[in-house]
Specification:
The protein is mainly β and 151 residues long. The chain is 12% helix and 38% strand. It contains 2 helices and 6 strands, in the order E-E-E-E-H-E-E-H. A hairpin with a 6-residue loop joins strand 3 and strand 4. The radius of gyration is 33 Å and the shape is elongated.
Length: 151
């Protein structure tokens, strides 16, 4: 999986020793380049720490990542680990950012306006009765327009 974003923060490296030998760990924070940017904490281990230190803040990076969750005492913890860095990406080459505005077809737009705002509709006309399937023609009472009632 790959994530593209701008490097906005680099935390101090942490070192330690385990049964396998010495290790180094560092967290970097990137901000994705999207309509609604998200900040993502990515963990770099061992030789990736040296690579991450080489990048300056504000640099746009493409990072191959691995996402893994583990359970400890009934709670789950998720790590986003850097596998490989690619610093050759330019912000305008980002495939995640797209311009979603598309030209509107003029005929479609005019048709929508006519459907929304019909021209010269006489609201004083008697409504037309539509024949429903399965209902005889004489089911509706005749319309009498000669009454004197004010309503």
């Amino acid at each position: 999986m790959q994530i593209i974003g701008k490097l906005i923060q680099r935390n101090e490296p942490i070192t330690g020793t385990s049964q396998r030998g010495e290790w180094k760990k560092m967290e970097i924070i990137i901000e994705t380049i999207e309509t609604y940017p998200k900040k993502v904490c990515i963990i770099c281990w061992n030789e990736r720490v040296n690579e991450a230190n080489a990048f300056e803040l504000g640099k746009t990076l493409a990072i191959d990542i691995s996402i893994e969750s583990r359970e400890y005492n009934g709670k789950y913890y998720t790590d986003v680990r850097a596998i490989r860095f690619d610093n050759s990406i330019q912000p305008q080459q980002n495939p995640q950012v797209q311009d979603y505005q598309q030209p509107v077809n003029q005929d479609y737009q005019q048709n929508q306006m006519q459907q929304t705002y019909p021209q010269q509709q006489n609201y004083m006309q008697q409504p037309q009765q539509q024949q429903m399937p399965g209902i005889p023609d004489n089911f509706y009472p005749p319309v009498d327009n000669d009454d004197d009632l004010p309503f």
